[in-house]
Queue: 4 jobs
Job 1
Amino acid sequence: MAVRTVIKIGNPLLVEKSALVESIDHNLRQELIADMLDTMVAEDGAGIAAPQIGESLRVVIFGIEKNPRYPDVEPVPTTVLINPVIEVLSTEIESAWEGCLSVPGFRGLVPRYKNIRYHGLDENGHIIDRVVSDFHARVVQHEVDHLDGILYPQRIKDLKDFGLISELQAAGTIPKIEE
Ligand code: NI
């Protein structure tokens, strides 16, 4: 287990489509998944996708506990999701500010589907199948986008809604967060 370097926007690996995982074995669990989890915790992220540590495989991890830094966000159980598939359940779209460990220091206003169903396999090969909405739906859409080589700035409708965290906070556009 190890904290790995998170690759950043501009690295061509982040715009590649990742490959399906063909077998969920000891190596996948002990190397890739363990390293992703360690890295997500060390970087204090709400999610991470395998390509962000340079592995072009369809694996994402996400989760957020009740956190005073995100008072308006409902908790999401820490979930390892392999070969995820998203089904959109309604055309309803919501916009909210997102960040990404691969785009450090920035936030952007991103429209996402409000209600989705997602399914895939966990680290033991068991099926995960959930109907979710709001922040939970957003984080899954963000992470699965990574597997298709899409970073959130590509989803921003108007690039005026993209900027440095420090400037957006100074302007009152996004709340200040206690570090
Ligand atoms: Ni991201």
Note: The chain is about 20% helix and 30% strand.
Job 2
Amino acid sequence: MSNHSPISKDALENVVTEVLAATPFIDVHTHLFAPELGSLGLWGIDELLTYHYLEAELFRFNPLQPEAYWAMTKSQQADVIWKTLFVENPPLSEACRGVVASMHLLGLDPNAATLAQAREFFRAQNLPEYIGKVFKLAGISSAVMTNDILDPAEAPQWSKGGPRDPRFHAALRLDRILNQFSAHATALDAQGYKVEASGGGKSMSEVRRFLGDWVKRAQPVYMAVSLDDTFFYPLGDLRTKLFREAVLPACRDAGIPMSLMIGVRRQVNPAIRLAGDASGVADLRALENLCRDFPENRFLVSLLSRENQHELCVYARKFANMMPFGCWWFLNNPSLVEEITRERMEMLGPSFIPQHSDARILEQVIYKWRNTRRTMAPLLANTYRLLIEDGRNVTRQDVERDVARLFRGNFEQFVGMKASAAR
Ligand code: HDL
Ligand code: ZN
């Protein structure tokens, strides 16, 4: 059958599955790092098992108290998580099954009683080459990093010029500036930017200059911030001033979008550290105001609450300068990915970015993208089935075009990246 001949309804899911498997995706938000950024990049079985999603689940199955857990070494922590969640209990949760899937696809035995075999395998890997193997298994061509440019652990890594590995794109993460400016004004001042903790004086133009210097250094594809569920815009606060006079102008200077990730209820349980954040419903009038007041800016948006998803689709229909992306964090589970993606397709057609992995540990991209393809195949096939039943032909070429657009082209076009071959 040629690429241009109509697909029969019963062949749809096979064709969609094949096209999803054959198209390398761009992972538009991760916490992965290019190998040139050294130990910031996490990989291997001990990191996979001490992922904060699994730490949260450990405390539900094991009476071990957090303080005692934090006192352990990384390998002791991984051992207790493996024993508790994978040996003594069935790894049925999404995060647990993900580790099983990644191990299995790497040729490791997820039924093993201990981590000895896995640790030996990872010790033998050469990172730059291994990244290629993992990205191939995940079906991704590149990943966007999260570069916290005021993090004392990361900033010095860029002094040597920073990565030029085409598999990794930079994104400037601005939480310390937008959410905790006063606490980080000294760090900015120490780097030669004349800012004041109050945000007064030349602070706004200096923050804009700081961001411009980082755009030159890191060539980011977007700037980003994670915002609490209580976030609002505009208020009479310093964050409103920073958005208006520094950050959004810096995005316009660079011609790149601002990524807003809204809805975190931070540290509801500080005892479990990174695992201690929760989710809350945000007031999307803030987003409405930003998209309307800044028509020259473009906004990538991902929301943490399931309850905000439908109104995000409505707003995306009102503002073409806003691009919904991903099923973030607590939403990255097949049952919710399916619900959210269907309502996006019904309201936006293929003009959104369905998913990002949010991977913190390299090998997570293997299972997170396996899950996305597994969820997307029947969903996309059903979308095309309805179109055929309502009178329109669908060809393999249509499917290839739409999958490339959803998982590559929408992002490349929205951030102004030159379109790269999808092969
Ligand atoms: O702020 C973010 O980018 C979130 O993704 C957090 O890193 C969160 O802890 C996370 O890892 N979610 O998957
Ligand atoms: Zn993230």
Note: The chain has one domain: 9-415.
Job 3
Amino acid sequence: MVKKQESGLMEKIVSLCKRRGFVFAGSEIYGGLANSWDYGPLGVELKNSIKKLWWQKFVVERDDMVGMDGAVILNPKVWEASGHTGAGFADLMIECKKCHSRFRADHLGFVDEKGNIVSREDISCPECGKEDWTEPKQFNLMFKTNIGPTEEKTNMAYLRPETAQAMFVNFKNILDTTRKTLPFGMAQIGKAFRNEITPGNFIFRTREFEQMEIEYFIEEPNSDKDWQKHFEYWVKQTKDWMELIGINLKKVDAFEVPDNERAHYSKRTVDFMYEFPFGKKELYGLAYRTDFDLKNHEKFSGQNLKYKDQETGKEFWPHVIEPSFGVERSFLAILCEAYQEDPSATLGASRVYLKLKPYLAPYQAAVFPLLANKPQLVAKAREVYDSLKNRNSSFSIHNSFNVAWDERGNIGKRYYSQDEIGTPYCVTIDFDTLENNTVTVRDRDTAKQVRVLVPELKDFLTKKIYS
Ligand code: ATP
């Protein structure tokens, strides 16, 4: 019987990630850097597969979407227009734990006449009315940096706290160069940086992370029905994406964020809350940003950022639906879904395997010669391995798998080792191969084996992996 072991699941995932080279603690040889993580050889493959699949689904396969890749450091005025900076930026800040609104601590009475911080439990949040505060701190979420050799204030800039703004800033460029008509979207994948007050839960909340974001521009709505239609469409698209990467939708709640907890720019927000082992937490967000961003960037830049309808000649700021996906939170949810233990295994301990979608797995297949000391087996296995990798073909970039090679130890251990990293198919070259040109293909989830002719192997695996 195969059982999902919920107890201690996070510890098991963290340990597997380190043991097998998915995720390492950042700067480990120097004692680490709190809540920073590095992705090893298998982790980077999984991360890349997530991003590639997302790009394929939301950009390549659609006619109404274009991609872009903006800078991490933008003109600081961008963050004034977006509302990320403000008059209280360099002051003592306090954050409401409920609605995440931030305030000048002195404005609310957390600082006495002498400038000392005072502890008060009776102050309610002006936004949501709750009395649940973080400790006052001297920073906001944006990381500051300096451009140029001096540290004068005029050279100060920020690392972007979201990828979205580069898309708004380039709205006109993209419109002019692509001639897209509404509705259409822009997509971007890239790093974002937030000086989070409470990072933690492994890679769930970090100060440096990657976002996959879409800004979907729609007509100026005449009624709520107009934008709700697009919004519902993106709810469905987000759910379809989750299924594509192997998330069980029964573990996801689409949470309607109430008025007093929404970001200042949003008229409707749905947070997709996934049942992580440490609680139900936001996996992705979907927001209706209205025309807030384009309007404000026009105000701050003095540039016309309106859209002109070619038929009616009407000019207006398009409204925006924004689905926002975290790469690392996807990575973690995928691992939580995929981790399996099979206690009926024969090699002593339970068989641990990652039931990853085959197209996401770091390796789609592994190739083994049955015995490492039989040159004929090794040579034949190399031939199969090279053909799967397309090493001898000029088309390798278009049609190759990631394939692992292993010739160490006994075959059972090699299977278990591949199971643990989610390799869906193991191909073994044995003495029968030399006789009849067939190999055994063993399935990760069922441990069942079939024999396949070598010339048919690639097609056989392609169908299994992508259908
Ligand atoms: P949270 O409420 O968890 O802080 P948020 O509402 O601030 O998240 P958004 O601003 O909506 O997050 O960002 C969009 C997506 O980016 C999130 O749904 C999540 O997947 C990802 N994300 C945001 N902050 C982090 C972080 N600190 N670490 C990892 N991923 C993050």
Note: DSSP finds 13 helices and 22 strands in the chain.
Job 4
Amino acid sequence: MNYPFFSLRALRRSIIAVLPCWFGALSTTAQPQKNTITVQTGLPGKAISPDLFGIFFEDLNYAADGGLYAELVQNGSFEYDSTEQTGWNALSFWELALRGGGTGKLGVKSARLLHANNPHYVAITVEKPGDGVGLANGGFDGIPLKAGEVYEVSFFAHQFFMGRQWSSDDGIKGKPMPVTVRLEAENGDVLAEASWDIAGYDWQHFSAKLTPNRTTDNARLVVLAKAQGGIALDEISLFPSNTFRHHPNGLRADLAQVIADLKPKFIRFPGGCLAHGDGISNFYQWKNTIGPVEQRKGQRNLWGYHQSVGLGYFEYFQFCEDIGAQPLPVVPAGVSCQNSDSSPGMGQQGVPLTELDAYIQDLLDLIEWANGPATSKWGSLRAAAGHPAPFGLKYLGVGNEDKITSVFKERFQRIYAALKANHPEIVVVGTVGPFPDGEDFAQGWAFAKALKVPTVDEHYYASPQWFWDNLQRYDHYDRTAPKVYAGEYAAHDKDRRNTLRSALAEAAACTSFERNGDVVQLASYAPLLARRTHTQWTPDMIYFTGTDVFLTINYYVQQLFSQNSGDTYLATTLSAASPSPTLAVSSVRDSKSGDLIVKIVNGATTTLALSVDLAGLPAGNHPALKIVLSGTDADAVNEDGKPPRVKPERSELTITPVFDYEAPANSLTIFRIKA
Ligand code: AHR
């Protein structure tokens, strides 16, 4: 270990502390009655990553469409497809709406496209208008609306002739088509509506503000054509005006806010497996996700549904900027997921080498798009989207959990060489396979070390006990090797529920990240979001429905670490006659506030008597904030519809440099001592 600021005695005590199971016998020499925590507040400490605690967003569990992306219409561009889910088609989640004796039909067309990336649209043929012929959409499990709030409906449309059924003599030609868009309650009541007379045979954009007069969580958006004739429609959309920071094409305010409240230092996106995709044709391609929404190219989400990419790179970067987080986009390392084509572990496909230069150019273009001047080719697109200033991209992930094959290595090597040559300022985050050990892990590390990749991404989903057993993992890492991004981790307890035990195991891991913040540069829990009724993976950090957000106990742990992070680690040692194997501590200083922050995790089911020695702190009383997260597992579980009863409790107090503390059973305690 390379902790130059430790005295030898402190170092020895530290070893006793961090290796309680292995070296428990050694500690019998000191013989204190209690577990004693000593924090060296007077020594300089070691600089640790200021970006340590961030988040990982992946469009899994309907996290994007039907989730963070505030769009309320589902399949508004008529691009759903049977390759995404059996039985899906361009009209999925739409139905024919016939009102007051109207007759007609819906058809899916590709003849005169709004944009080549958007290859289907709907055609309404009105035979007998009645009170209207059209189509209705119930969004994602019903459209939630709030009385008095403003919603913006928009769509593209043009008139069309209906083949040989009508001629210009029918008197239809030249007459506009009256179109009404309504928000309807479950019982058919009209909550708000707007109408247009649509004239012309070229695509035009229409929009209106609608203010529903009643709150409901199960409305439908209904488009009705009200005269004989034909009307083509595409990109039908309904957004609340109240998106996060009121951005157009923005994010769902309540979900974005709880993410912002985590105070993440970075956001990794768009995956995960989603990034490298199910086969190379399923790569998440950033260029398909920018520009006007109707010109973006949606595609199958490998998690078994459709990604509209309405939430695309511009929106991700904008969100990062809004909440003060570094963007950490992850691009495929020129290979697809090894589980592609339903071939577990064997389906990795590589970009043909003849196409690799073009692929690499896409990545260089991404950096220009993010950081280049508004006058540059790609920077100008960012500026056109409303952001002339560079976004300040610093990190770029290349690859995700890839199998470390020769196909991977050849492509990664070329990508990395090009990034290094053209953008030495970018911190490339490589990958070391899906697991925290094993063949890919070992080979991935050896490869990353040989190439001197700045940082590598490690993943671990494991039992709470695994986390406690591995708290020393990073104590032994080579300080001269690539840094670590603990990019996906979660303690999986029984039935993969969000238990207090899992959250405390993660808290313990976070203390080890802080202690090793000179090695662990970044860390993020996974996955972040899950829509109830569309949850494909558990546990997750935040659950939601169309109207509600449910935080978990694991959320609170992440929030507490992120909100109480620091940039200097202070030597923190433990000593005891029989050290608790479920006690983890760390101490940091935050240079902005000057505050000293001590975190104590007691994973035992009994209270733990502690003595805390803040060595070097001047004598006297010091104002402090104490935050305690504790309770029973039963209170902490986030069952359907019920938030956990366990929440962080805050209290103000004064403390002296040496004090006793009874750490509650199953608890995380944070002392934030004011500068
Ligand atoms: O977090 C869910 C998935 O777990 C990610 O997509 C993948 O990287 C990992 O296997």
Note: Residues 58, 60, 271-273, 400-401, 434, 488, 526-527, 537 surround alpha-L-arabinofuranose (CB under 6 Å).
